[in-house]
Amino acid sequence: MKPRILEVRENILKKNDELARSLRDEFAGHGTYVVNVVSSPGAGKTELLAVLMRLLTTQGVRVGAVVGDLATENDAKRLAATGCRAEQILTGTMCHLEADMVETALADFDLEATDLLFIENVGNLVCPQSWDLGEDLRILLFPSTEGEDKPLKYPTLINTCDRVIFSKMDLAGAVEFDLETARRNCETVRPGIATMETSARTGEGVDELAEFFRARVEEKRSTAVSL
Amino acid sequence: MKPRILEVRENILKKNDELARSLRDEFAGHGTYVVNVVSSPGAGKTELLAVLMRLLTTQGVRVGAVVGDLATENDAKRLAATGCRAEQILTGTMCHLEADMVETALADFDLEATDLLFIENVGNLVCPQSWDLGEDLRILLFPSTEGEDKPLKYPTLINTCDRVIFSKMDLAGAVEFDLETARRNCETVRPGIATMETSARTGEGVDELAEFFRARVEEKRSTAVSL
Question: In whole angstroms, what is the distance from residue A146 CA to residue A67 CA?
Answer without folding.
Answer: 22
